[in-house]
Design goal:
Mean pLDDT: 92
Order of helices and strands: HHHEHHHHEHHH
Structural class: mainly alpha
Helix content: 55-70%
Number of domains: 1
Number of helices: 10
Shape: globular
Number of strands: 2
Largest sheet: 2 strands, antiparallel
Strand content: under 5%
Radius of gyration: 21 Å
């Protein structure tokens, strides 16, 4: 099962590349691997949105008496080496596999189907959630919560036609969990705070050893993120449509080189 999940992104990514090449579309741009003046801003927006969402999750769990905060071991000087560098690499790899390759391919294959882009987002999100079932503390509930993360990254990816916003969301979600002392999909990392469960019977709120995305407040926070992403997309592309997930324009086909005229040939000698 895990081998199949690992292979699917490459299969669908190859399909997308072949289709884009035959249609004479710029392959890197069509896969969302473009860079523009908007790219750094979209990373920052993704970080801001997810820090707000995880902050609300922490406030909710504290208010419900599910957790208590204690000092953590992470310091500003160790932030890069102990946490940030690992999370950047993990977010980049997962976005490359599950959005750039898998979701691009699914969107191409399902493009003739009514609602195909939404189906592609949901399928890629389900596979993204299933791929985390081997993580410590994982369960099918945790897979659903992680799948909701796949939905918010997928909406951001197809909405912007770029990897930068989903990368910022992914990095920000994990970084905020780590900083606030939550487990990150079952992995315990040093944080500036330590979030300690107040009792053993609050798993439905905290997500247990898997982390907030397996608990009710964390799952609700996923919908907050999706709403804020759609708000951003609608403000930047007012003519976009949520029902079809079409906001940013599709990459243009490469234009054929203009044939040289006789006069040009004469001038060149």
């Amino acid at each position: 099962m895990s081998a199949l999940l690992g292979l699917l992104p490459f299969v669908f990514g190859a399909v997308a590349i072949v289709v884009y090449a035959r249609a004479k579309r710029p392959i890197a741009r069509s896969l969302g691997l473009n860079a523009s003046r908007w790219s750094p801003l979209e990373v920052v927006i993704g970080l801001a949105i997810t820090f707000v969402a995880i902050g609300l999750t922490l406030v909710a769990e504290l208010a419900l008496g599910a957790v208590r905060l204690e000092p953590g071991s992470l310091t500003w000087s160790s932030l890069w080496s102990d946490l940030l560098s690992h999370l950047i690499l993990a977010a980049a790899i997962e976005e490359l596999l599950y959005r750039v390759l898998l979701l691009s391919g699914l969107a191409v294959v399902l493009s003739p189907v009514r609602g195909g882009r939404w189906i592609a987002v949901l399928l890629s999100a389900a596979l993204f959630g299933a791929a985390h079932l081997g993580n410590p503390g994982a369960s099918w509930v945790a897979a659903v919560g992680t799948g909701l993360g796949g939905v918010m990254y997928g909406v951001a990816f197809l909405g912007t036609r770029s990897v930068w916003l989903p990368f910022g969301l992914h990095l920000g979600w994990n970084l905020a969990q780590g900083v606030f002392g939550f487990p990150i999909s079952g992995h315990v990392v040093p944080g500036m705070f330590a979030t300690v469960p107040a009792a053993d019977d609050v798993l439905v709120l905290t997500g247990g050893t898997y982390g907030p995305e397996a608990g009710i407040p964390g799952m609700l926070a996923r919908f907050v993120v999706i709403g804020l992403v759609v708000l951003y997309l609608s403000s930047r592309w007012p003519d976009g449509r949520f029902t079809t997930l079409r906001y940013a324009p599709e990459p243009r086909r490469r234009s054929r080189p203009r044939p040289s005229s006789a006069a040009d040939t004469e001038w060149r000698g």
